[in-house]
Amino acid sequence: MTTARGALDGLLIADFSRILAGPYATMLLADLGAEVVKVESPGGDDTRTWVPPDRDGTSTYYLGINRNKRSVALDFADPGDLRLAQELAARADVLIENFKPGGLRRFGLDYETVSSRNPKLIYASISGFGTAAGASLPGYDLLVQAASGLMSLTGDADGPPYRAGISVFDVMTGMHAAIGVLAALNHRNATGAGQHVEVNLLSSALSALVNHTSAYVSGGVVPHRMGNAHPSLFPYEPLPTADKDLIVIAGNNGQFRKLCAELDLPHLPSDERFSSNEARTRNREELRPLLVARLKQRPADEWFKQLSAAGVPCGPINHVDAGVALAEDLGLDPVVAVGDDDLPMIRNPITFSASQVRHILPPPTLDEHGAEIRAWLEESH
After folding, report:
1. Quick check: 91 and 12 in contact, CB under 8 A?
2. 297-303 long-range contacts, Cβ below 8 Å, gap at least 24?
3. Region of residue 262 (phi > 0: left; psi between -120 and 50: alpha; otherwise: beta)
4. What is the pLDDT of residues 179-220, one digit of tens each?
């Protein structure tokens, strides 16, 4: 057992999930102090084989979402292994799974069966499209990016739809699962009763599309691709400078006045075409060339320093390496060394004034803690 204490210290989580959404949720909870037992098939989590890239032969995809866990390989087709899996579920405070809906019923690991033995259990299920008519649909992030409408919003206005650069809805659904678990734990603290928490990728996607789904359900407007432009703000996009694009934002009238002052265009804020956000957005095709003409007179890095100093939101378009470097420059300490081999990993993004966030156990090898966990499960209560 680990020694670092956190907000979730003392909680035992049985992690029956694999790929991304579930493992991301359980890693977040493990970072906050929970003990997570990662139950894998004898073949291991699929992401162990998702290479390249890798670090010393291990998939960096797997490494990025399985910190602070202990692994045991259990074959549910083996009666002895299945009994141990059921015993783990009976002892756990939280169980998280992302099998196809109903897939664990034949193993006696479904919510109804497990909760009859462990009524205080928080049982979290993650699916692609819910448990009704979409229960049989496979839950891949790319499918949900397409089905939810995100791809219709991503890409150039006159180009094809694109997927986001990450499995964005897997990550968001994992966060929603973690939020649901924490809320259910608070409910249990008040009532003593566990419950079933369900999240699915499509519902998380529609929630995460925020202003776009709101535009449709509240305003009857179907959003469309606009490249890097924002439907309700301008400027809020990359603008060309003398050497490269720079993100420039004026989220309110005060920021727009500051931007115009630095660009030596002090008359624009009083122009009725640009005097409000709505006016600037409606007249973006007239305003954009006026701003670009000034920005093209100097390199992006010079504008970045000047505009930032003046309080105008702006920034470079970085590659991932520069993004990590920026966080380091800002004192955010984004990289932590984990385990005896000092595996570099991205730090948990949450900080507390009192509780501790831990980055102790490196992602486990398959069945690394199998003997220890099996012996513990064989013990009587």
Report:
1. yes
2. 297/242, 298/241, 298/242, 299/241, 299/242, 299/243, 299/244, 300/241, 300/242, 300/243, 300/244, 300/245, 300/246, 303/241, 303/246
3. alpha
4. 999 999 999 999 999 999 999 999 999 999 999 999 999 999
| pLDDT above 90 for 381 | no
All structural domains of the chain:
12-208+333-378 (3.40.50.10540), 236-325 (3.30.1540.10)
Distance, CA of 337 to CA of 359 (rounded, Å): 8
**Mean pLDDT estimate for the chain:** 97
What amino acid is encoded at 113 in this protein?
Answer: T
Nearest 10 degrees: Cα torsion 185, 186, 190, 194: -20
Q: What's the chain's length in residues?
A: 381
Answer yes or no: 170 catalytic: yes
- Check pLDDT > 80 for residue 95: yes
Q: Which of 9, 170, 243, 367 is catalytic?
A: 170
